[in-house]
Amino acid sequence: MRNAINKITTALLMGGFIAAVPLTAYAATPQEERAAVHKMEDNTLARLYAARPDTRQEIQNAVGYAVFSSGSLAVIWVSAGYGHGVAHDNRSGQETYMESATAGVGLGLGAKDYNTVFVFHDAKAFHDFITTGLDMSGNADASAKSGTKGGGASGSADVLNGVRIYQLTDTGLLAQAMLQGTKYWRDSDLNGTSN
């Protein structure tokens, strides 16, 4: 019986995971994927600036920043998600295309799409992020305080030294940045390199 439940859960999770992958993953060419990532980036930053106007200056003054779009699905005891994004070096103007994946355990059911903005105030943290990636699988959720709900929230988190993180959903800025179980790495296809 337990084996049958595991197979059903796995099938549901895999089907839902495929459905939760952001649309950028379905683009036909690397150029189309990069264009889709930039469109997502522009929309995400516009939403962030509307919710928190002070973030425009914060991002301009930062060493660099990264913007991601992700989708996730939770089915009973397992959750998984996938996303794409781009990191910008404000000093050189260089762009690095990235991917992300998340996995976790815990009771839940549902799907969500969200965007994450990393603001790097530390040069080493930015360099490490774009060269070796980031593995948040061992970290607890990063909590942030919220002044109001929805688009007017002040939610951000300082998870790593010199890095501020904002997360947005369709309902606005999240009061909590949830990065537990998430890994980020360079996208070898969009950067034109191989692993």
Helix content range = 25-40%
Structural class: alpha+beta
Distance between the termini: 41 Å
The tally of strands reads 9
How would you describe what is shown here?
The chain has one domain. It contains 5 helices and 9 strands. It is an alpha+beta fold and 195 residues long. Helices cover 32% and strands 39% of the residues. The strands form 2 sheets. Strands 1, 2, 3, 5, 6, 7 and 9 form a 7-stranded antiparallel sheet that branches. The chain has a two-stranded antiparallel sheet with strand order 4-8. About 19% of the residues have low confidence. It is globular. Strand 6 and strand 7 form a beta hairpin.
Brief overview, please?
The chain is 32% helix and 39% strand. With 195 residues, the chain is an alpha+beta fold. Strands 1, 2, 3, 5, 6, 7 and 9 form a seven-stranded antiparallel beta sheet that branches. Strands 4-8 form a two-stranded antiparallel ribbon.
Question: What attributes characterize this protein structure?
Answer:
alpha+beta; two-stranded antiparallel sheet; 5 helices; 195 residues; globular; seven-stranded antiparallel β-sheet
What's the topology here?
Elements: H1 2-20, H2 30-51, H3 54-61, E1 64-89, E2 95-120, H4 123-132, E3 134-135, E4 142-143, E5 157-160, E6 163-169, E7 172-173, E8 176-177, E9 182-186, H5 188-191
